[in-house]
């Protein structure tokens, strides 16, 4: 199986920056897609950003150029640089790994980290 551990959440003032990181471990040969989702109180979990193994990125519409996702395939890590943060960005941010290929060629789907709180004060 696959474990995801997130780092980097915290409290920041509006307009500030935070960097989230996530490390995947376990029986991994490759990970097709890694990404970040967020869930605010009373709202559904939504995509923040994702990145494929080849570096193709996708962002939620609310990002508007403020966030940048990156990954290191050799270390199975994904990071999210968040700039110009707004109070509306306050949420629990979850790391996601999908379409994980194991060394014995199994294909595993959808793993989640435990979540890290991001709070943006006004």
What's this model, at a glance?
With 122 residues, the protein is mainly β.
Provide structural commentary.
The protein has no helices and twelve strands. It has 122 residues and is an all-beta fold. Strands 2, 4, 5, 6, 9, 10, 11 and 12 form an eight-stranded mixed beta sheet that branches. Strands 1-3-8-7 form a four-stranded antiparallel beta sheet, with no helix packed on it. A hairpin with a 6-residue loop joins strand 4 and strand 5. The chain is elongated and about 50 Å long.
Radius of gyration: 14 Å
- Helices and strands, in N-to-C order? EEEEEEEEEEEE
> What separation lies between the terminal Cα atoms?
40 Å
Determine the mean pLDDT.
96
The coarse overall form would be elongated
How many strands, which pairing sense, and closed or not: the largest β-sheet?
8 strands, mixed
Q: Report low-confidence residues grouped into runs of 5 or more.
A: none
Number of beta strands: 12
Class per helix and strand makeup: mainly beta
Strand content: over 45%
User: Helix count, per DSSP?
Assistant: 0
Helix content: under 10%
Note the topology:
Blueprint: E1 2-7, E2 10-13, E3 18-26, E4 30-39, E5 46-52, E6 57-59, E7 67-72, E8 77-82, E9 91-101, E10 107-108, E11 111-112, E12 116-121
Parallel strand pairs: 2-12
Antiparallel strand pairs: 1-3, 3-8, 4-5, 4-9, 5-6, 7-8, 9-10, 9-11, 9-12
Q: Which terms would index this structure?
A:
four-stranded antiparallel beta sheet, mainly beta, eight-stranded mixed beta sheet, 0% helix, elongated, 122 residues
